[in-house]
């Protein structure tokens, strides 16, 4: 995006009352792009037909397909925005090293922009995250450091702890910090939310979104509450995470989960939970099965958290009658999970087999 085409700026004051700033600038795709960075944002909004029908929804359900972004996820938006804002403020300069703790997609978004703009990139990534993400990150030139999944966020060996240690050791290095950086929610306040409002021509009743850092849901919710205050914002959080409100929703025997990129054991600064009207908790099996249904029944090649979002959307949208409209955000692509839930054996081995959606037969039986 050249600067003139980029999103207009507003100031961001996290965890305060709603700002009165509005961004109206359109960010249209040019016929010929200067670089692939211009293919971040302006993602399609697609009607969900077959799943809506079989689930008996009366309202219209639309999917914001973030897997069409250049690097394959919603986090390309913040990777680009955090780097551009840091450059504009003079915080970083070409040749510096960027270090980021991430579940992978922010890393890919950052590494993509960093590769084109000439920054070194180090990613600290919990072991849980897929090999596919690691391979893409490496191909983009990033250095990867894996960290134990079970480490608490404030433990020195966690992905956050290791990033901080490296930052102290490496000269001219910076953690742009998606958990606290206002450019994270702003990318969605100026971009994703404006696009949804424009694509719906303002006719919209509910938005459903998962949360990791919470940047996506916070940025979308802020803008939509300003422009269309009647719209309900629904957050989706996996069982085993503590992001949902009221706190009682988070009580669960489940302590870990396999869906990547959503949920946390702390509340990130950029997540403004008062903007969310309702939270829905989801489990792995229903999410992975729904992610496969999105592929099989709608042709949407999205990832696991998209399955969680859709489980939440179906539940929440059942309260909407005919003529109402719900938008659900599908955060990333199946490309990240080719060896995971896309694979029948992986589904069976992890106890997620369901003969209706997973081929449980061995090759000899077939
Ligand atoms: N889904 C996936 C697959 C992700 O990688 C992320 C980002 N961690 C999210 C959803 C949630 O996005 P956010 O960090 O903006 O809450």
TrEMBL record:
Give residue spans, biased composition: Polar residues.
1-22
Q: In which pathway does it act?
A: Amino-acid biosynthesis; L-cysteine biosynthesis; L-cysteine from L-homocysteine and L-serine: step 1/2
Q: Which cofactor does it need?
A: pyridoxal 5'-phosphate
Residues annotated as signal peptide? none
A GO CC term?
Answer: cytoplasm
**Region ranges (Disordered):** 1-25
Give this protein's Gene Ontology molecular function annotations.
cystathionine beta-synthase activity
Report the EC number(s), separated by commas if there are several: 4.2.1.22
GO BP terms: namely: cysteine biosynthetic process from serine; cysteine biosynthetic process via cystathionine
Top EC class for this record: lyase
Family listed:
Belongs to the cysteine synthase/cystathionine beta-synthase family.
What is the protein name given in its UniProt record?
A: Cystathionine beta-synthase
| Organism of this sequence | Polysphondylium violaceum
- What is the covered span of the full protein? 1 to 366 of 499
């Amino acid at each position: 995006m050249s600067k003139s085409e980029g999103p207009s700026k507003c100031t961001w004051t996290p965890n305060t009352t709603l700002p009165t700033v509005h961004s109206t600038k359109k960010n249209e795709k040019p016929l010929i792009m200067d670089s692939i960075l211009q293919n971040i944002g302006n993602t399609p909004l697609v009607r969900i037909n077959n799943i809506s029908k079989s689930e008996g929804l009366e309202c219209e359900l639309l999917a914001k397909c973030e897997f069409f972004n250049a690097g394959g996820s919603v986090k390309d938006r913040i990777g680009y925005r955090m780097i551009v804002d840091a450059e504009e403020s003079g915080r970083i300069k070409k040749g510096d090293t960027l270090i980021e703790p991430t579940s992978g997609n922010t890393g890919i978004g950052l590494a993509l922009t960093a590769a084109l703009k000439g920054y070194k990139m180090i990613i600290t990534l919990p072991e849980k995250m897929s090999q596919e993400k690691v391979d893409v990150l490496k191909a983009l030139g990033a250095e990867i450091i894996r960290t134990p999944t079970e480490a608490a966020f404030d433990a020195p060996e966690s992905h956050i702890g290791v990033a901080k240690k490296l930052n102290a050791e490496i000269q001219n290095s910076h953690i742009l910090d998606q958990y606290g950086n206002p450019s994270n929610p702003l990318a969605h306040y100026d971009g994703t939310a404006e696009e949804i409002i424009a694509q719906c021509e303002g006719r919209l009743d509910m938005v459903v979104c998962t949360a990791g850092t919470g940047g996506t849901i916070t940025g979308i919710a802020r803008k939509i509450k300003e422009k269309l205050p009647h719209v309900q914002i629904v957050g989706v959080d996996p069982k085993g995470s503590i992001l949902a409100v009221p706190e009682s929703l988070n009580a669960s025997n489940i302590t870990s989960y396999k869906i990547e990129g959503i949920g946390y054991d702390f509340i990130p600064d950029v997540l403004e939970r008062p903007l969310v009207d309702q939270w829905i908790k989801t489990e792995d099996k229903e999410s992975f099965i729904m992610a496969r249904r999105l592929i099989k029944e709608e042709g949407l090649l999205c990832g696991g958290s998209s399955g969680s979002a859709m489980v939440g959307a179906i539940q929440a949208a059942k309260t909407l009658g005919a003529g109402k409209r719900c938008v659900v955000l599908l955060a990333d692509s199946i490309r990240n999970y080719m060896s995971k839930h896309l694979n029948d054996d992986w589904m069976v081995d992890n106890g997620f087999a369901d003969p209706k959606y997973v081929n449980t037969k061995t090759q000899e039986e077939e």
